[in-house]
Batch of 2 targets.
Target 1
Amino acid sequence: MKTIKYELQDGIATITFDEPNSPVNTMCLQWQEDMSALAAQVLKDKDAIKGIILASAKSTFFAGADLKAAMRLTPSDANAIFTEIELVKKNFRTLETLGKPVVSCLNGTALGGGWEVALIGHYRIAVDDRKIQFGLPEVTLGLLPGASGVTKMTRHLGLMGAQPYLVEGKTFSPKEAKGLGLVHELVTPSDNAADQMRTSALAWIAANPNAQHPWEVKGYKVPGGLPSNPAVANMLVVAPAMIKKQTRGLYPAPEAIMACMVEGLQVDLPTALRIESRYLAKLMTGINARAMINTFFFNLNAIKSGQSRPGSAARFKPAKVGLLGAGMMGAGIAFAQASKGIATVLKDVSQDKADAGKAYSAKLTQARVDKGRMSADDQKQVLERILATDKVADLAGCDLIIEAVFENRELKAKVTKEAEPMLAPGGFFASNTSTLPIGGLATASAAPEKFIGIHFFSPVDKMKLVEIIRGKQTNDETVARAFDYVQAIGKIPIVVNDSRGFFTSRVFGTFVMEGAAMLGEGIPAAAIENAGIQCGMPVGPLAVLDETALTLSLHVMEQTRADFEAEGKTYVATPGELLVADMVKKHNRPGRAGGAGFYEYPTDKSVKKFLWPELKPLFEKADVQWNITDLKDRLLYRQAVETARCLSENVLTTVNDANIGSIFGIGFPAWTGGAMQFIYGIGIDNFEKRAAELAQKFGPGFVLTEDVKAAIRRHAPVY
C-alpha cells in the first residue's frame, strides 16, 4: 500500500493515511486500490485484532475526493463511477462491521470525503482547535456526500437535524461536533495531542470491545422520526418547494440530497447506501458539478494561492490605511479594514460627514454584539481603529491611501494631489473608481508607477470580491501589495488590466443595458425581469438599474461621450443607454434612491415595490414576437461574449479571474461556473453557433470576431 500505513501490534491495528508527494490525503485512485488491499488485510487479521485506530500523518486528517479526476468525467461514465463508489463503501463497511471497535483520531480538518472517512470510526476523538473544520460541503460543488455521508449523517442527526449540514453544506468546529454528538471526545491542542488521542483511543477500545454504530444496534430510532412520522411528513410537503425557491431548479444537488435523505430512511442501510451511490454518480457526471468544481475549487484556489500576484516580494500588510470619502463605499471599506486589525483614517470634507461614515461601523458591529457574534470589547477595539477626520494631516504615515469619492475625474485628481504627499515612504495610492480608466486618473499622481485601481463592490461588508486594476505605468510591486492588502482584509482579489469599465463594470453594463434594450423593443418589463431571475441572476436587469441609479448610468454615458470627443472619436450610445437617458430626462425616473425608476417605491414600507405601470403604454408593443429562451440567452450570452472580449483584449489575463469575478462581482449565475465556464460548459462550438443566431436577431453585441474565438479556445481549461 502506497497511501496507507498498516501496523498490527498488541492487537491494535493502526491505519495511518499518508499519501506520498501530497500535502493532504485524498481519495485518489491509488488510495482506492489501497483501501481494497487494507480491507483484505484486516479480514485476514480479524482474529488477532482487538481494535482499529484511524490516524493521519498529515497536518490535516483527510481532504476528500480527487476533484481533478472528476473534471474528466462525462455522463457515459456514470455506471463506472457507481461501481467505484460502491467499492469505496464496501471497504468502509468491512472496517466498521468487523466486530471490532474503530476509533478515528482527528488531528486536523476533515471535509467532504475526509469527514466520511472519519465517520467510519464508532468513536471519534478530535483536537479542540477552532481552526479545524469538519463537515460535508459537497453541495457547494454541485455534488452530494456519496461515500456514506448522507446516509450516516441522516441516521446520526435525523432528517431535520442533518439538513443544514447536507443540503446547505454547513461546516462545524470540533467543539460544535461534540455538541452534536458527532465527536465524542476532545483533546487540548499541544505538541503531544496525537499521543493523547491514541491513549484515549486505546482506553475506549479496551472498554468497548463490541462497539457498533448506533443504527446497527437493535431498537435504534432515527432522531426526530422517519418520513412517515406526521411531523416529519408535514415538513416534507414544503421542503422541496423551499429548495426549488432557493435554487430556481438550476442546482440539482440540493434536491438530490433531500431525495437521498428521505429515500434512504425508508429502506435498510445497504439499500440506502446504494441509493446514495446512484445519486452521486449522476451528479458527478453532469455539467453542473463540473462547472462548479472548476470554479469554486480550482479557480478559487488558484486565486487564493496568488497565481495573479506578480513578482516574489515578501507578503505585505499595511499598518495604516487612509480613505478619502466617508460615503457608503469609504465607510464600508473602513469597517472591512478595522475588522482585520488595520488602523484606518476616514477623511471627508467635514467632521460631521466623517463621523457619519464611522457610525456605519458602529451600526454593523452593534448588530453583531446584539446577536452574540461579537463581544462589546471587540466592538470597542474595531471602532478605536477608525479615526474619523476632516484634516488631511491625519493621513500622514499611511502605507496606502484609497480615494472613494464621486465618479468625477476633476474631483479625483484634486483629492489625489492633496493626499498623496501624506503617504509613508514606499506607500502607494489607489482609486476605488468603478469605470474611469486608471491611466487617466494616474496623471494626477506624482508617482504613477505606485498608482492603482482597487475597486470594491457595494455593500462592502457583504461583497467578497475586489477588482484590482493595473494601469500601464503601475509596477509589479504595487500590484502585489494591492493583492496582499485585499487578502489581508478577507476579500477575494482579481487582477485586470486598465480599460474603460475594466472587467466587472463593463460586463455588468451589458447585462443591464440588454434588459433596457429589450424594453425598448416592446417586450413586457415583467417578462424581462422574470427571464433574469429564471436564468439565475440575483435580480432582473431593470431592478438592478434602479438600485445602481439610472442617473449614474447616464453620468457614465455622458462622461464616456466627453472622453471620446476629447480623443477625436465619436461615441454611439446603445439602444439600452438611450432608453435609460429618456427615463431620466423625459420621465424624471432617476432610480430607487430618487424614489422612482423602472419600479415604483411606495412610501408605505409594508407594500412591496412594483413595476411602474406607465412602462406598458410607453414601451410595450402587442405585436412584438419574443420567447423566454431568447430572453434568458440574451442576458447570459451578452455577458459571456463581453467577458470573452475582455480576455481577447488582455483586460483579463486568466479564466480564473473571469469566472470568479463574474460570479462574486456581478452575480453571474453560480450554476454556470462563471462567464467563461458557461462557454466551456455549453461547448465552444455550440456557444459560437448560438451567439451567431443571437447576433443575427439582436445585433452586434453578440458578435464573436475571429480574435475572440481564438482567445476562447486558447484559454480553455485542460484537466
Target 2
Amino acid sequence: MSTSTIPLPVTAVTCLEDRSQVERTATVELAAGVQRLRLGPVTALTVDRTLRAEATGPAGFTGAGGGARVLDARVVRAWTPHAPLPPGPGDSELRRRVHELDERARHEDRSHDRLEARLALLAQLSADLLREIGEGAGAGEVERARWARELDRVDAERERYGEELRATRSRLRELEEERSLARIALDEAEEEPADLVAHLELTVEARAAGPVRLTVSHLVPCALWRPSYRAALADGGLHLESEAVVWQRTGEDWTGVRLTLSTARSALATQPPALAEDVLTLRERGAEERRTVAVELREEAVGALGPSETVPGVDDGGEVRVLRAPAPATVPSDGRAHRVPLSGFTVPASSEYACAPELSPLVTQVVRFRNAAGHALLAGPVELVRGSGFTGRGELPFTAAGADAELAFGSSDGYRVVRETEERQATTGLSQRSVTTRTVRLHISRFSGPEERDEQLVAVRERVPVSEVSAVEVRLRKEDCSPPPDAFDADGIVRWDLPLGPGARRTVTLVYEVSATARVAGL
C-alpha cells in the first residue's frame, strides 16, 4: 500500500440546479499487480454513493492503460481538531487581536469570580457579626465600640468590592462587544482550515507497470448556479450578454475548470404523489337557484408556461438545457456570487413606448429583439443599460433560440397619463335587461425638450371584461370609441398606437357595455 498522497485536482464541474457534479483527473505511475492509492485531499462533502472511478491510458499511451481497472473506491474522512495554541509569527494582526481580547476576557472573568466570592464571604461575615451582637445583647454584654467598628469595617469592605465588581462587569460587557466585532471581522477576512479532511482510497489492479490516468467523479452539495444577463441598448441595436452566476461552498476552490451549466433536477422525487379521495356529490337545484344565475367579477391572469413564482429554480421550458463556459473558469469556495461569461450577441431591435393606465400611469420603453444566441435564453434577471448608463434591473422570460423577446427599459419622464372613468346604468325593453355602459377617457401628454423633434409611437392598452356565461353579454361600442382601436383580442385587450410629436396631447375614449338578463344576480 502506498503511504504517499497523490494530488487529485478538480478539472471539470457540471453545475446543476441545487448541486454539482465534480470530475477529478490525475496521471499516476502504477506497478504491476494490485495496489492501494491514497488521493486528495478532497472536500468532506463528497456524496459517497455517487463516487465513481475508472482507469484509462493517457493520450498516446498504449501500455498499462488498457490493462488497469479500479477494484474499489471509497471516501475516508479524518477528524483533526485544532490545538488551543497562541498565534504564531505568521498569523495576522486581526487574529492576534482576537487572541489578546480572549486573554483579557479570561482575566476579567477570574477577577469577577474572585470579587463575587469575597462579597459572599463578607455577606456571611456580616450575618455572623449581627448574630453575635444579638446574642451578646441578650446575654447582657454591651460592646458598642467594637461592634460599631466591626460593622463599619465590613460595610466599607462590601462597598469597595461592590464598586470593583460593577467596574469589572462593565469592562466585561465592553470586552464582549469588542470580541464579537473582532470575531465577525476575522470570519469575513480569514477562513479557518477544515477540521474534517477527506481522502480517496482506490484499489487498482494493473497488468503491467506504466502511467495510468485516473478519473473520479462524484456529487457535492452547497453549489448551484442561476442565469443572469446584461442588455445594452444603443443606436437601434441591442447587445445582450449571458452570464452564469455560480455560488459554491464545498470546501475547495475550483481553479481553471471546464464548467458546464445544466438545468437537470436530480433532486426531484422519483415517487408518485400520494393520492387523496375527492368526493363529488350531486343535488337538485332549488327553485330560487333555477330562477337566478349567480355571476361574479374576478381577475384572471393570462396563463404562461414555466414555473410559478412560489417554486424556486430555473425556467428551462420543461426541457433540460446544457450550457458550457467558453473558457476555463475559477470559482472560489467562499459562498459568494461569481459571474462566468457564457455568450453574447448584437441584433437589431425595435423600440416602442407602452402604457397600461389601469395598472400604472407610467409610459415604459419596451424593446423587442430576436434571440440570436444560438441557444435558449433561460429566465433570469437582466441589467439594463442605455446610452446614459445603468437604468435598472428587469427580468428576461424564457426565450427559445430564434424566438422574439421583449424587455422593459424603465419609464419615461416625458409623458403624463390621466385616466377618467364614467358609468351609466339603464334597463331596456320588455326583457328587463340591465345595461351598464362604461366610458374610459385617457389623456396623454408628451413633454419634450428643445432638442427633441422626432415623433414617437405610444401603444396604449385598456381591457374590456370577457363574459363566460350566455346570460351576460359584453359589447365594445367601436362607433363611440375615439379614435377607433387598432386591435382588440379575445382576452379583452384593446390597443391604440398613438403617434405623439413634441408637446402633443391626445385623448382616447373607450366605450363598452355590459348587459345582463333579469335572472342574473351578483353582477
